[in-house]
Amino acid sequence: MPILLGASPATAASILTVLPAGSQVVDTTDRLFHWLSSHPEEYAVLVGPQVGVDDAMAIAERMRSLMPTTSVVLVRDTVDAAVLTQAMHSGVREVVAASDLNQVSGALQRAHGLAVALRGNNPSSSQKSGRVITIFSPKGGVGKTTMSVNLAIALMRGGRNSVCVVDLDLAFGDIAITLQLFPTHTIEHAIGGESVMDLSFVEELMTPHESGLKVLAAPSQPDARERVTGTLVATLLETLREHYDYVVLDTAPAFDEQTLTALDETDECIIVATLDVPTLKNVKVALETLDVLGVAEGHRHLLLNRADAAVGIGPDKVEGILAMNIAVQVATSLDIAKATNAGRPLMLSNPSHPSSQAVRKLAETLMGADQRSSAGQIAEQAPRREEPSKRFRLSRR
């Protein structure tokens, strides 16, 4: 999917209306190349008006040597002959006006066609590049599993997207029981299969849900956790993202080996918190840890669950404590518990329920349908820092 660098929130919001769902917005060159390093399938980089001409030319020259099949499209407030000349010599594919969305859309279509033509002999070019969405909280009992299941169903968009859920709470995972599934295979049966893992191998281990959602359940016994290695998790996720639009991970409430590996592969991280002091304390420590590790910077979303003002801690105070904007609030509701106990998630049993609407809003944001707000918030949510490469791959795999 295209990636946009150096545009004001208003310009970004306008351009995102003609970009495919899942397109990214970044605010620094470091973040641009960090993203590209793990997403070599990107076919276009749009360099916006807030990037100076000389810097834009330097980016294009760097892209020409590093990723020659990825087109650089220069987006300017005004297009003149001098810029066109510089762009031609620096490897920029096209120069378009920010106000002309038809030009922007046409340039992207040509960039995609060029990428397909140039990569035509590369088998991996036809593979899907799905997105890994990790649901994480450092404290148990906050509704993480319930949110994972409902978010996954919302991401399906009635079957238009292929979605799977992987239960990485390997000791006490509840995805299967939440959906009233009785799996014959779990992730435990993938142990030792790293070298032969492909779609058919993984599909044999999955349990289908009536909604069309696929579930890779946690082991039935907690002692299997130690035998599910970080290498296995990484190989599994690489396979799944080639065949699913979205891979939703429900993780353990701890920074264990499997969770760290999952976070390393994460495109979007949903942090779940509730309105109680112990949870907020733990979430704050967890966010600081994620900062140190460089995990999902600019791609974290705070989900405030059981948001009930009567407890004495309001959303404003939460944002102040965590130094992070709340992406979505899900109010306290007995309907959620009833739906979970009935084995039919609220997103299916009552899609018009306010809690379902809240989760759907988050899903739309993740799918790129609500990029207007996220484009303006990236700078606030992602303080600039030196971008690492994969955090754990060298030492853990």
UniProtKB/TrEMBL annotation:
It comes from the Bacteria. Residues 131-290 form the AAA domain. Residues 363-397 are annotated as: Disordered. Pfam families: AAA_31. InterPro entries: AAA_dom, P-loop_NTPase, ParA/MinD_ATPase. PANTHER family: SEPTUM SITE-DETERMINING PROTEIN MIND HOMOLOG, CHLOROPLASTIC-RELATED (PTHR43384), SLR0110 PROTEIN (PTHR43384:SF13). This is CpaE family protein. It comes from Nocardioides yefusunii.
